[in-house]
Amino acid sequence: MAVEWKNLDQLKSFDELKNVKRVNIRETMSGENGADRVRRYSVPMAAGMAYNYAAKQVDDDVLAVLVKMAEEAQLTDKYRELYNGAVINTGEKRMVLHQLCRGQLGNDVIADGVNKREFYVQQQERIAAFADKVHSGEITNEAGEKFTTVVQIGIGGSDLGPRALYIALENWAKANGKMKMDAHFISNVDPDDATAVLKSVDVAHSIFILVSKSGTTLETLTNEAFVKNELTKAGLDPAKHMITCTSETSPLAKNGGYMDAFFMDDYIGGRYSSSSVVGGAVLSLAFGPDVFAAILNGAAEEDRAATETDPLKNPDMLDALIGVYERNVLGYPATAVLPYSQALSRFPAHLQQLDMESNGKSVNRFGEPVDYVTGPIIFGEPGTNGQHSFYQLLHQGKTIVPLQFIGFRSSQIGNDVDIQGSTSQQKLCANVAAQIVAFACGKDDENLNKNFEGGRPSSIIIADKLTPEALGALLAHYENKVMFQGFLWNVNSFDQEGVQLGKTLAKKVLAHETDGALKVYSDLLKI
Amino acid sequence: MAVEWKNLDQLKSFDELKNVKRVNIRETMSGENGADRVRRYSVPMAAGMAYNYAAKQVDDDVLAVLVKMAEEAQLTDKYRELYNGAVINTGEKRMVLHQLCRGQLGNDVIADGVNKREFYVQQQERIAAFADKVHSGEITNEAGEKFTTVVQIGIGGSDLGPRALYIALENWAKANGKMKMDAHFISNVDPDDATAVLKSVDVAHSIFILVSKSGTTLETLTNEAFVKNELTKAGLDPAKHMITCTSETSPLAKNGGYMDAFFMDDYIGGRYSSSSVVGGAVLSLAFGPDVFAAILNGAAEEDRAATETDPLKNPDMLDALIGVYERNVLGYPATAVLPYSQALSRFPAHLQQLDMESNGKSVNRFGEPVDYVTGPIIFGEPGTNGQHSFYQLLHQGKTIVPLQFIGFRSSQIGNDVDIQGSTSQQKLCANVAAQIVAFACGKDDENLNKNFEGGRPSSIIIADKLTPEALGALLAHYENKVMFQGFLWNVNSFDQEGVQLGKTLAKKVLAHETDGALKVYSDLLKI
């Protein structure tokens, strides 16, 4: 069926959705009915995980309309178009191929005479070979010594995703004999960022990865100069300590100043690039190519789960549909992502970019203004830390914030203590279970200051353990959720024109070509 | 004048505020008028800083009503009541004395026969003496060797604030010869958190600080057991490696299991406790007592600035008033805190707790429901990193999010590179200046996908450099802003009953005393 791109408010099912009776989750989540919902409202995900939406503000009536909406919005068809190579990124007139880094769901995608799946696999193989040589000592520093450390230089999607994934697997890798090299990250143009990282690493035994698709990112090129300075000062040859991840057409691709260059292309957006060489180089060097491959396998399995046409069996699509219901019908402005795992401490920061940069738009894919709200504010911190921080507002504040919990049955390292009859991991899990029910059901108290209204919706993704496969599946789940929501809102989730104006004005400030308010701010900051 | 505690919607000036003409900041911030605003709309802060609100959605008419509102709500009088020792925390029937840790603005405050200012100073002096002895080698480990490392065990206010402050000054301390000991933090009950930190430090040369006011915090006691296990396994005596920061009445105060105990009391809430021994112990050990004293001096100076009765000369009060205008009249649901300094990477996480836990309430100080929205969602990341992440939504999304920038003229370390005619620090400052104007003024484009509506309000705090004094002033500024907003909303900003229900239910899960949905979740998580 040919796809038709319609605005959300052109869908009949969206009108219907506005009129379905609202669900009182305080009631539906109580007693045996609540138990039944937790058992029923669950969808399998990749890597043995499950998306449980029992505590979301939906029931069979709401779900029936969401199913209609998925069909009317042709979500499956649009996803198929995307992975078959249609120009989904209308603003920049580009295909959207990040899923192709981890598997092939449809037709061969050919661009500029190249089979793109083969191209991405080839780059992965080149990285794997390079990483293996570094680990084996075939590639060494000038003194013939092994490299011990890898430092990624990048910002935005070249930083947040790879950094979140590295932190997520660092302890797992150490506990499983997979730790090959320490990784560090330089992102901010703040000179203290690069200086502090460079002081904390052994530069003589470090490989620096310069990551910029265009090869023109201000922060990244500045930080490259910073690093080259330090290497030179230490009597080292920068060209023997740096590799680059860039596009084949960028000025970095063939400048000879790097040990090697690995390539992505214009069909992979920065915030979707963790599956490409942007994540692949640093993660393969840090943990070995097999670990990166396992991440990709988990992601590929989740991508396949997202092809399921029945939304009630498709965790990524269902999550997307419920999110749009919460945003556009129930009117909630934000979503909190709350992983009960310290290893996922920076995963919410990655999702913040993924979601807010993709769907924080006011025009549809044809450049026409839309009359409904689009992407929500995304924020989050790991539990149980967040419980002792901002959960007060979530429980008793005036603004309802839908919640996305993530929980793991086992810790990554497996080291634990039994205190008062339970392990720390059990305490961690008990807390996330308790929070879901506390948010949903609340608790009456005559003292209104101690009263909990409940009615705060949440979902939880449950997994056995945060392994590379589970992490890959989580990454793909949120990417696919964002994609399906973009289809529903009819926005282009793959460009980011909103970041341009600031760059342009910053250049004017540096060139001292300002007047009015900008000149006074520049003077105040003594630029 | 006796203070009267009224709800926001009982104030005549609030009605008036709703009817003042809305400001079009796109217009007012353009041309010479914009330049004039940037010069005029600035209030001095402590430590030579300034709060500049030129790009906020206010003009002289709005400000005039905000001034009336400050008077009608008796903000100065309420602050005076607070620092003179009134029972401002109505829920828990407690005084609120965190400002007294850093100076005395009013009467002597006596509780239980003790002069509280003297008590707090005494504890600071005890910590200073202890830290000096550790640094000089008078206090050593069992082998007579110097301690090199300090590890804070705490969660919520015992973690976020002290951690944010430590990270904020780590590079400054290294660059200024003030680095005495490395600090690490264990917070989450996730066993991987404690395990990973313990593996990364040299426990034989570490002092662990157990921080829990009540001495009953689940996470903290569990992590204490974790640490004691590791110390014992390493053949070390836990009592020779641990100190505690707690209240004098807690079970930890006199249990003999610690090298020493330092005290706070019930008049200092967790999220306000960075100025007490909770922040004092770790920061004095890490950087020396003089650095902690300088933080307190900066905070005390800002506390004094907050006593100014004219809101237009009082940066903390004015920030609070504008925030309430944005939340309750303009209807914005969230505020983003955007420090242009990598050193402040965790400062927004601290403010998230400070603000959302204080004012995320639905009842007033008398326990009566309020009919208006209260505390906003708070989130943020350092710039320029955020520019490459969620700024897309801030610039072009459907939801307007007011912004709070923080900018510094100089870096902390002073190491920099000149590339294309400007240093990294200049690029950093140019970006924050550019963002303010881009958000306020926008830019027309026929292609609506590249169009910037503008009209996005922001303020900026400008300082020379992130020094201990500046950091203390920033800390106090936000504490005082939150306090004044609590006065305006007539909520109790100093309790947190919303965190209780989850704790109660988690205990039931661990005791296997659950039914319904909670039992099924517990089973799914295999607790």
Walk me through what this model shows.
2 copies of one chain form a homodimer. By secondary structure, chain A is of the alpha/beta class. In chain A, 43% of the residues lie in helices and 12% in strands. The first copy, chain A, is built from 18 helices and 15 strands. A 6-stranded mixed sheet of chain A has the order 1-2-15-12-10-11, with helices on both faces. In chain A, a hairpin with a 5-residue loop joins strand 1 (42-44) and strand 2 (50-52). In chain A, helix 8 packs across helix 9 (218-233) and helix 10 crosses helix 11.
Put the structure in a nutshell.
The structure is a homodimer of 527-residue chains. By secondary structure, chain A is α/β, with parallel strands linked by helices. Chain A has 18 helices and 15 strands.
Radius of gyration of chain A: 24 Å
Structural class of chain A: alpha/beta
Query: Would you tell me the overall average pLDDT of chain A?
Result: 97
Distance between the termini of chain A: 57 Å
Oligomer: homodimer
Order of strands across the widest beta sheet of chain A?
A: 1-2-15-12-10-11
Number of helices of chain A: 18
The largest sheet of chain A, given as strand count, sense and whether it forms a barrel, is:
6 strands, mixed
Summarize the largest interface: chains and residue counts. Answer: A-B, 159 and 159 residues
Estimate what percentage of residues of chain A fall within beta strands.
5-15%
Helix content of chain A: 40-55%
**What form of chain A results from the Cα inertia axes?**
globular
Low-confidence stretches of chain A: none
Question: What's the number of extended β-strand segments of chain A?
Answer: 15
